[in-house]
Amino acid sequence: ANNYKWGIFTGFAYDVHFENNECYGSRDEHGIYHSNSGDRFVIRGNRIHHNAANGIHINGDPTLGDTTLGDDGVISFGIVERNIIYENGNSGGAGINMTHVQDVIVRNNLLYNNHAGGFTFYQDTGTFEQGSKRALIMSNTVYLKAINRRVVNIQTTSEKVVLANNILVSSGNYEVLQVWSDYPATIISDYNVFWGVSEDRLVSIGENRTYSLTDWRGFRDSDRNSVLADPLFNSIEKFDFRPADSSPAVDAGAPLDTVRAMVARLEGTEWILAQLDSLPNEDLNRNRRPAGAA
Asked: What is the DSSP letter of 245?
């Protein structure tokens, strides 16, 4: 709590689990910062809030490390789940920021009132091979406070991303989803609930070209089963982001087999598929999915 730089920081650390921590009040940067070629990581069940920059920052950083020691400038094979992340980013930085990250599952996280974006997936140096690739962003709830950022931002060299079963709410100033990728055919999005923006500017391609949900479906055949509708949270004022019984998010998610099929459309996703076979199919509160009749 209330450190100057970070709550928890690692560099060149492999096989690390960050579980059930509270990280808050970092005055300069991030709550949890996992950096520099640290493969096989788990970030689970943490409460991360009121940090100046990112809630969670995962950065392979190709500019540092020794390739003779196995440092490839990429962080691979990670699970980020059941974290509650809020009120971060006053000085910039998303709730969950992924740079030079490959083969990652981000699921069952709650992000609310962050000031500089929900999820980002990008690279800022290195080769194309060291860029961010192969991510499943699934079953997260994001209520964005940022006035000048998107809920999901997939940057130029990033590829092979699946967005499924998320509730993504914008502040209304910018689009929910920004796909700036040079590889849009590898970005698969469906079974999401979007809200907070006008119908004509749900998605941006690049920096300024915007699409409605209807146009986005026509352009990329994406989000055929998604809806633009108020998710009807129980109480935003009390930070209760469970959907009410009448919410359009109830019974609207894809079954796990459908998600697997979405991921399998992308080349090289065998690790993600294997994790889906072994991870418990549960929600933020560790309730089993699906619940009820649908």
From this structure: T
Whether residue 148 has pLDDT greater than 80: no
- Please list, residue by residue across 178-198, b when 16 or more beta carbons sit within 10 angstroms of its beta carbon and e when fewer do: bbbbebeebbbbbbbbbbbbe
Q: Cβ of 227: how many Cβ atoms within 10 Å?
A: 16
Please state the pTM of the whole predicted model.
Answer: 0.96
pLDDT at 221: 82
Cis ω on the peptide bond leading into residue 290 (within 30° of 0)? yes
The number of residues making up the chain comes to 294
Give the burial string for 232-260 (b: 16+ CB within 10 Å, else e): bbeeeeeeebbbeeebbbbebbbebeebb
Give the C-alpha separation, 129 to 131, whole Å: 6
In three-state secondary structure terms, 184 is helix
What is the structure's pLDDT at 22?
A: 98
- Average pLDDT for the chain: 94
Phi, psi of 151 (to 5 degrees): -70, -45
Task: Return the DSSP state at 255.
Answer: P
Max Cα distance, the chain (Å): 57
Beta-bridge mates of residue 44: 19, 81
The residue-averaged pLDDT of 216-231 equals 92
Q: Are the CB atoms for 113 and 143 separated by under 8 Å?
A: yes
- 52 Rama class: left (phi>0) / alpha (psi -120 to 50) / beta: alpha
Angle at 21 between CA 16 and CA 27, to 5 degrees: 100
